[in-house]
């Protein structure tokens, strides 16, 4: 016989589970289950309830829909705004965090190999003959070391 969750706990448990990083034990405790019950391995039974699974899927779908409007430009503008707020409040920790976040959105911390050019300007298209010659030069360079 499957474990049956009280109707009033399904939405609460699903919401807590989705908000806490998908930790079943913490979700159960936040939803009102005892620490002992949540720690005793009961979460597997609780999370098999099809109504709970359906509610979790509904919440996740809603979150995906909410993320549709977020763009890189929006993220950058938010980091810039929060950086200014942190600087005005003389909060160097948060200022550094938002400056780093801004750098990440523009690819400033991307790992580059030694041989990789950091030049981001678009390369001109090679003609077919130029492409063949370039491949031959590269092969010869590999053979000769």
What brief labels describe this structure?
mainly alpha; Arc Repressor Mutant, subunit A; 8 helices
Descriptive account of the structure:
There is one protein chain. This protein is mainly alpha-helical and 145 residues long. Among the domains are: 7-67, Terminase, small subunit, N-terminal DNA-binding domain, HTH motif (Arc Repressor Mutant, subunit A, Orthogonal Bundle); 72-105. Helix content is 66%, strand content 0%. The chain is built from eight helices and no strands. It has helices at residues 7-19, 24-30, 35-39, 43-46, 50-67, 72-88, 92-105, 128-144. Helix 1 packs across helix 2 and helix 6 (72-88) packs antiparallel against helix 7 (92-105). The protein is elongated, with a radius of gyration of 26 Å. The model has no long low-confidence stretch (mean pLDDT 81).
Order of helices and strands: HHHHHHHH
Structural class: mainly alpha
What's the gyration radius in Å? 26 Å
The CATH homologous superfamily name of the domain at 7-67 equals Terminase, small subunit, N-terminal DNA-binding domain, HTH motif
Q: What's the overall geometry? A: elongated
The number of helical segments is 8
Q: What's the arrangement of secondary structure elements?
A:
Blueprint lengths: L6 H13 L4 H7 L4 H5 L3 H4 L3 H18 L4 H17 L3 H14 L22 H17 L1
